[in-house]
Amino acid sequence: MIPLSEAVLVLVLLVNFAVLAASRLTFTIRATAIQGVLLGILPLTIGDPWSGKSLLLSGGTLALKAIVLPNVLLWAMREAAVRREVEPSLGPIASVGAGVLSVGLAQALSRNLPPLDAALPRLLVTASIATVLSGFIVLMTRRKAMTQVVGYLMLENGVYLFGLILAGRVPLLVELGVLLDLLVGVFIMGLVVFHMNRELESLDSARLSELRD
Amino acid sequence: MTALLPLALLLLLAPLLPGVAARTVALATGRRGAPVLQLYRDLRRLWGKDLVYGAVTTGVFRVAPVVWVFGAVAAAAFVPLDGRSALARFPGDFLLFAGLLALGRFALTLAALDTGSSFEGMGASRELLIGGLAEPVLFLGFLTLSLATGGSSLSELFGTGVGDAWPRVGATLVMVALSLAMLLLAEASRGPIDDPATHLELTMIHEVMALDHSGPDLALLLYGGALRFALFGALLVQLVWPRGAMGDLAAAGRLAAGLVAVAALVGAVESSMARLRMIRIPQYLVSAGVLASLGALLLLR
Description:
Largest interface: A-B, 25 and 20 residues
Number of helices of chain A: 7
Mean pLDDT of chain A: 81
Shape of chain A: globular
Oligomer: heterodimer
Radius of gyration of chain A: 17 Å
Low-confidence stretches of chain B: none
Strand content of chain B: under 5%
Distance between the termini of chain B: 41 Å
Order of helices and strands of chain A: HHHHHHH
Largest sheet of chain A: none
Shape of chain B: globular
């Protein structure tokens, strides 16, 4: 009926919208975990599923994006006793509308960026650009530091999708290096969130721009 | 003739669906639940009762149940229930389909206002809020399907063209199917939108409008509601499970099995989700619309 890789990409897109529309913080973190699972499955559905490279890529992605990172975020949330609401500066309906625009833009761009390999699903380029843009929207319009980390993760997921277009050509080491960078990045962000909470007694990043003695 | 048989099947099967959904909810919550055929018994019992009208009601109140059922039955005539072609078809008949459903809703809300009861007025206003937001979503879904299959009548949108379209534009069809499924919950007054089992008038949406109806009138309201459920279920079945090369009987069996599966799914959703707050409902319907329009966006190549 519908190729597996395309079905996974559709689900990735739907997760973007779930995050954009969500009002609860734990839900957005869980949603990125689900997106991590989907991204982990994806290398197996395109190209040769049982080559060592795609297995390693898939395993690394699953371990990191679906298990480690969401748990780090959930841990930071628990430790910093973050309030559960997202508190966006752009409402859910407007965010979702912006998400639709981003998919439209991604479609327009993907027309000029066909994948090098004809065997790759066309939706891949669209999904990657749309995920990057959705991550941007979350980064820009959410005021909580925690949600901004989620936005950053989504953005990175989009970059990872884009990387899959070239997965056959880029050395595995580069991919794994990116994953490692991401891990370090999120750990640092978790620490920043933790300290912000202790120093400012709030995670509202808007308050970072206030000068204080 | 081949189109009449599935239509009769749909009309006959409709009261089964709320029973199946209720049974699923009961099983999921560890109860045994009412018999699956409960609505059939209710309808027979109500049909034998006398009619009682409130003192302030007018002719509007008496006509409404008939119009409500008529709208749903007439709309069913345009749905390609056998998987190929509907009883009646012409280019753009999806407008009439939506219009007939809206006519039934219009009559029902007028009757609710006619009773002069404040609860019913509130229910009517909520029903119209949902209806007003659900209709554009339905059109968005039809529009996307029309772009995907190139047709302009329901028989083309949900007929054999769908089976051919799956390998080409599967991603789009998935989006439209999800959007239709969300719409089904709203249109059939089920799930996280409305609670068909509630006993509190303040929280009712659809049920509260039936409070003043009695006997055969109430039976008509219940039947019409079940039929709308079945109609949207049939659209969904048609979309997700195209007929392909099945024979006539197999296609009818597919419709029946699909409808029961949809009802069980609705029950599963109902038992796993809390009801949405009223302010969340527009957001829910906008999400359904977004899914449909995403489907259209994915068609741009």
